[in-house]
Amino acid sequence: MKKKIVSVLLACTMVLGLTACGSAKKNDNGGAKEEKTTTVRWNAGTSGNVLITIAEDKGYFKDEGINVELVPADANSDALTMLSTGKVDIVSNAGTSNPLQQIASGVDLTIFGGHMVTGAMPVIAKAGTKWNGIKDLVGKKFACNPSYFAFTGALMDAGVKDPLKAVNFVSYTDYNDALAAVKRGEVDYALMGTGQNYAVKNMKDVDIMCYQSDIMPNYSCCRMECQTKYLKDNSETLQKVMVALLRAQDYYEGHKDEAVKLHAKAINADESYVAAYMLDDKHYKVSVDPLKNSVERAWNILSKTGFLDKNASKINIDDHINTELYSKALSEAKEKYGKDSAKFYEGMETFFNENDK
């Protein structure tokens, strides 16, 4: 009899132990309810996304039941090819012109959020060169992809009717090649990527003339996009993703020095390399906001300069920009976490009203 009682107690203990170690929670009826984790396949470029880094480190994705699987790609075009073929679910580091060109060619993508608003991308020239403004590019050789709409758009705003004829745009596949061209005198100016900040700031033979964001404020450096079908089928998941990213942006704004350390480790880079752009508050800005108005502006500039497929005239770009999910995520995040971050969420609401309506 004693052995039987001991066996029953042992069995009960084992059951309780299994329940405590499991991931199940009691539902309203007292039964077990499994916690679901949704995996999102994400390409965040070679330089990564600091908001993803923070959301992972602080457990914000975990709180939302999201598991992010980072999928690498060698180039922006590769990332968007993976997106259009369903090999990744989200792309966040492929710029703005690239996804817009994909949409114009008939790929059904939707921009629903953002990464970098401005990416601290410097325009350089030989040391000693004087810079007076955007019209200094006229008649000069500029190492920059002409589909970078901030420059062509600013030139047209300055009265240059045909910027593609007024400026000799020279394209290089690598920013380091463009840098070398400036040093050799083959081009007068060159646009550098975010990752070149540390190098050019420490060179004596080149000077920074301006940054892309000086040419066009809030130009929309990188948007977040997915297949339109994926958004329709996974709207709740994407809303949770953006809640986590909003919490990450809130943390980032108040802990940039720590963000540098976290992100340097995440992308296997020196802290000084990351700090060179991330601590430049004037030129490097990140936001989860979709930036609808800037995306519309980019679409119109690309259309005027001939960088969109002829099919673009039949497309309403607003059909490929979703601000509703972000608006819902912002309201949810504010309700849950705004008590201790009222200033941040008020600022995000103001930014949304200014840039998406």
Short description:
47% of the residues lie in helices and 16% in strands. With 357 residues, the chain is α/β, with parallel strands linked by helices.
Furnish the topology, listing elements before pairings.
Layout: H1 2-21, E1 24-26, E2 32-34, E3 38-43, H2 50-57, H3 60-63, E4 66-70, H4 76-84, E5 90-91, H5 97-104, E6 109-114, E7 116-119, E8 122-126, E9 141-143, H6 149-157, H7 163-166, E10 168-170, H8 175-184, E11 189-191, H9 197-201, E12 206-211, H10 212-215, E13 223-227, H11 228-233, H12 235-254, H13 256-266, H14 271-278, E14 284-286, H15 292-304, H16 324-337, H17 342-355
Parallel strand pairs: 3-4, 3-5, 9-10, 9-11
Antiparallel strand pairs: 1-2, 6-13, 7-14, 8-11, 8-12
> What sort of overall outline do the alpha carbons produce when their principal axes are compared?
globular
Mean pLDDT: 91
Secondary-structure class: alpha/beta
Oligomer: single chain
| N-to-C CA distance | 76 Å
CATH homologous superfamily heading of the largest domain: Periplasmic binding protein-like II
Radius of gyration of CA atoms, rounded to a whole number? 24 Å
Write the CATH architecture name of the largest domain: 3-Layer(aba) Sandwich
Topology, number of strands: 14
The biggest beta sheet reads:
5 strands, mixed
Number of domains: 2
Low-confidence stretches: 1-33
Q: What is the CATH topology descriptor of the largest domain? A: D-Maltodextrin-Binding Protein, domain 2
In the CATH hierarchy, what is the class of the largest domain? Alpha Beta
Count of helical regions: 17
Strand content: 15-25%
- Side by side, the strands of the main sheet go 10-9-11-8-12
Helix content estimate: 40-55%
